[in-house]
Design brief:
The protein is of the alpha+beta class. The chain has one domain. It has 6 helices and 4 strands. Strands 1-2-3-4 form a 4-stranded antiparallel sheet. A hairpin with a 3-residue loop joins strand 3 and strand 4. The N and C termini lie far apart (56 Å). The model has no long low-confidence stretch (mean pLDDT 82).
């Protein structure tokens, strides 16, 4: 009877460990697909509509800026500029966010070079500075930049897709 209890406890602990490790395993698969330039496999780990929307929202928020008037509202000029840029931004983001550009980001290229494929060399293996952590039970953040760079890292946010699967769904630019 006692051994059955120990076995049950061990099974629960093992299941919890596996559950905790799922984003790390997904990230390993994503990075392997990026390194192998396997666009089809990489695309299977990406929620493209959510990723593109997060990027559009982030860029528009940057365009509006942090300046506020006396009522705490953003300046009208910034809001109008963001609206005009937003009209142009949508199709541009849709065309630039591809499995290939994501693979370049995961290899340490700066966002603009990764999106356009112009300039910027991928970092050599071992020359990346990365950080991984849970941001909540359904969000996991992977930060990446070239070792020695002064810029803020690019954050790639994975969201839980079902119980054990994760998909790249958000991109936070420096």
């Amino acid at each position: 009877m006692r051994s059955r209890h120990k076995l049950s406890v061990a099974a629960v602990l093992l299941a919890g460990l596996c559950f905790y490790a799922t984003p790390y395993l997904a990230l390993h698969q994503i990075r392997s697909a990026a390194a192998a330039q396997d666009a089809a496999k990489l695309a299977g780990y990406v929620d493209f509509p959510a990723l593109r929307q997060s990027l559009k929202t982030g860029v528009q928020a940057r365009l509006i800026g942090t300046e506020r008037d006396e009522q705490g509202q953003p300046s009208r000029a910034h809001v109008m500029g963001a609206a005009v840029a937003g009209a142009l931004l949508g199709p541009m983001v849709d065309s630039l966010i591809t499995p290939e550009s994501l693979a370049r980001l995961l290899q340490g290229q700066q966002p603009m070079a990764a999106a356009t494929g112009i300039g910027g060399e991928p970092a050599q293996p071992g020359k990346l500075q990365t950080h991984m952590a849970y941001e909540g039970p359904d969000r996991f953040v992977f930060s990446v930049r070239k070792l020695g760079e002064d810029e803020e890292p690019v954050d790639l946010v994975l969201r839980r897709d079902g119980l054990l699967h994760w998909k790249l769904a958000e991109l936070r630019l420096p």
